[in-house]
Amino acid sequence: MTEMENPVLPVAPDRRSGASAAGPADIADDLIRQEAKKAAVWLGVAGLFALAVLLAQPIMVIIGGIVFGAMIDGGQRLIARVAPFLPRGIRIMLVLLGALGFLIWLVTFAGGQIAAQAAMLPEVIQTQLARLTVWAQSHGIGLEDINLQQIASQVLGSVGQVTRALGGIFGGFTTGFLIFILAIYFVLEPDLYRRGFAWMLPEDRRDHFEGTAQRMGKSLRMLLFGRILGMVVEGVATWALLAWWGVPMAALLGMLTGLLAFLPNIGAPISGLLMIMVGFSGGTEMGLFCIAVYVVVQTVDGNIIVPMVAKRTADLAPALVLGAQLMFGLLFGILGLMLADPIVAMIKIALERQAERNRANRDEHAAGQVPA
């Protein structure tokens, strides 16, 4: 055969494999490809933000479980200092039984008295507002353009919403039950969940995360220990002093003061306002005594308990905590308001740890460039 009888034909590309054909997602221009990657990152961030907004309530429940688990863990660590021979599971059970016993006592022995006093509180507040209006008018303070009753009603309505929401958090079965169950799981096997989360991170960042998680846990335990200590001191001291003087609704005011002490910067003024208004309902002398009780209790808490605990926690600026409470309260309701302080503390620790990591990397890089 000659060459003309067997011509060499060009081989066509295999269209079925598509190996040499450009796809619809291929971008030839490097600049456009780089900008497309940036756009994809921003779209992903926006999508994650939208997902976080949609899942805000479950996320806050999970964070609440972490915070409550840290509280239980701190309690079992305190028991370990007294009885180190007890197993960890037994210590956790003792903490839970103690909390359950307190709730049973509160409902059984103090529930009726506090409920009766709570029914009297709105009438007392309204009476004091009327007296304040008459006093202002008798001293020549014009109220033509300022509706004191309306403003005070709005303020007290907000106070009522806060107190009712606080009761709803502790009485709401679904949210409270989920937080409780999550806290039990977290506190029984904290290493399991910490290792599982670290496994999703790059390998070179897992040790850094372990150190950050350890520091966050210690800070949360001390922060919540100080918070509970402040709640107990403020609540018991307020109740005892007001009951000693014969102030009406002493038990209710003591309970509200203790509960609102969990909200730094916000709870103390609200409880103090209620205490003073109830005190003046029994006369000027009783009102002045309530003012003195409020000042003494807040001074002890602010100058002894808070500094003692702040030395071993993430020392947070009051303005930062207040701003976080306003934002989290607006976004997530009363649960966000209660968890704003722990969340800000954890964010601050994470940023500090990242700054330490960056500083160490810069030092190592600088040391590597210096000739031996």
Detailed description of the structure:
The chain has 372 residues and is mainly α. It contains twelve helices and no strands. The chain has helices at residues 30-54, 56-82, 88-108, 111-138, 148-171, 173-188, 190-199, 206-245, 250-260, 267-280, 284-310, 318-369. Residues 161-171 have low confidence and may be disordered.
In percent, how helical is the residue content?
A: over 70%
Average predicted local confidence, pLDDT:
76
From N to C, what is the helix and strand string? HHHHHHHHHHHH
Any low-confidence stretches, pLDDT <50, length ≥5?
161-171
Beta-strand share of residues: under 5%
How widely separated are the two ends?
76 Å
- Count the DSSP helices: 12
The best one-word shape is globular
Q: What is the radius of gyration computed over CA atoms, rounded to a whole number of angstroms? A: 30 Å
Structural class of the helices, strands and pairings? mainly alpha
The beta-strand count equals: 0
